[in-house]
Specification:
With 370 residues, the protein is an alpha+beta fold. The chain is built from 9 helices and 17 strands. The protein starts with a helix and ends with a helix. Bound molecules: zinc ion.
Length: 370
């Protein structure tokens, strides 16, 4: 029965596409569903307007034993693209899309799990903590919805963010990320009669790239040059070349150091090309976090895992999630794996069985969470 309901809920959400910034329809549906499950819901569809989203974050409250510590369960309602309405396919326990669109198990599988958890605690009629729910918009573009979220509306001091591939993993730490744009401004000139009057920004960018290290910088830090563009035509010395890079690290100080190294390489490049200017634009996407492994939240999850015969493994995540925002705003959070696989592609899939196992884990956790 659990699996049937999980699949029915998931299939229903699969019929409502929700690419980032277009969560209006799915959120209206989710608000009604949460109310139907007995939660009090606060929702302002205008909340995400500053993000260009046509929806807002969903805040929901599901009553429990008032003497017990509340817990926040969180997921995001947007998906990557290509997104479209489709009939989710279930065969031999495996849920797939129709090949044209992402399945959206990232993160609708988490929402289906949370719905089933709410139904189960109601059916079991035993003591459970008050459950608060945060469904964010615009997660995929850089945790924008979570950053906008008013966490003061929750009583919980801890959160479980259900949003990771794999099974039986607890993400207790995660990288932070910086977006770095470099603009090489040289000087245009005719590539025939005035070539020596020009400053070639493409060559300057190439020289810069030879001075820096990319890929794995150290055991906790990676740098990727993801895009390069510049120049106009073969008969013009290219005036402007742009490089886009992404830096990820588990340590903020290491990110600062890596940016400094880029700046030093830029200065050296400017010295090589008199008149060249290199502009740096560094934007923080999200900060890293690292919880202690002994916090009650992790202890309770591990105990729950043991009780259901599925030991949980502590991992550090190489990607961000809403937990980055929550932790850095003082809401202690970890990420839970939910079994989604090949996410961010049209090949995405998930096992219904794994979703049911996550339901069991969260239910066991709720028993431990005092
Ligand atoms: Zn996700």
């Amino acid at each position: 029965m659990i699996k049937e309901r999980l699949f029915r809920d998931f299939a229903e959400m699969a019929r409502i596409p929700s690419p980032t910034y277009h969560e209006k329809e799915i959120n209206a549906y989710l608000v009604e569903r949460l109310k139907g499950l007995g939660a009090r819901v606060e929702y302002d569809p205008e909340e995400g307007a500053s993000l260009q989203s046509n929806a807002g974050n969903i805040y929901a409250y599901f009553p429990g034993d008032p003497v017990r510590k509340p817990i926040l369960l969180s997921a995001h309602t947007d998906t990557v693209t290509p997104a479209g309405a489709f009939e989710a396919h279930l065969e031999n326990g495996k849920i797939t899309g129709d090949g044209r669109f992402v399945l959206g198990a990232d993160d609708k599988a988490a929402i289906a799990v949370i719905f089933e958890v709410l139904r189960r605690v109601k059916e079991m009629k035993c003591s459970h903590p008050p459950i608060e729910i945060a469904f964010s918009v615009a997660e995929e573009t850089g945790l924008e919805g979570a950053a906008l979220m008013d966490l003061g509306r929750f009583r919980s001091g801890q959160a479980l963010v259900l949003d990771m591939s794999g099974m039986d993993l607890i993400g207790y730490a995660a990288v932070g990320s910086l977006d770095i744009q470099l603009t090489f401004k040289g000087k245009a000139a005719h590539a025939g009669w005035a070539i020596d009057e020009g400053i070639n920004s493409v060559m300057a960018a190439a020289s810069f790239l030879q001075k820096i290290k990319t890929g794995t910088l150290d055991s906790e830090t990676v740098l990727n040059i993801g895009r390069i563009s510049g120049g106009e035509a073969v008969n013009i010395v290219p005036e402007e070349t742009r490089l886009s890079a992404e830096l990820r690290s588990f340590r903020e100080e290491k990110m600062k150091k890596a940016v400094e190294e880029l700046r030093t390489a830029a200065q050296k490049t400017e010295a090589e090309y008199p008149g060249l200017k290199i502009r740096f634009d560094v934007r923080e996407k999200y900060k890293p976090y690292e919880n202690r492994k002994e916090i009650p939240l992790i202890k309770a999850l591990q105990k729950a895992g043991e009780k259901i015969g599925r030991p949980q493994k502590l991992v550090r995540c190489k990607g961000g999630s809403d937990a980055n925002i929550f932790n850095n705003k003082g809401l202690e959070s970890v990420v839970l794996s939910i079994g989604m696989t090949d996410v961010h592609s049209v090949r995405e899939w998930i096992l219904l069985d794994d979703m049911a196992k996550v339901v069991q884990l969260v239910l066991a956790f709720l028993k431990e969470w005092k």
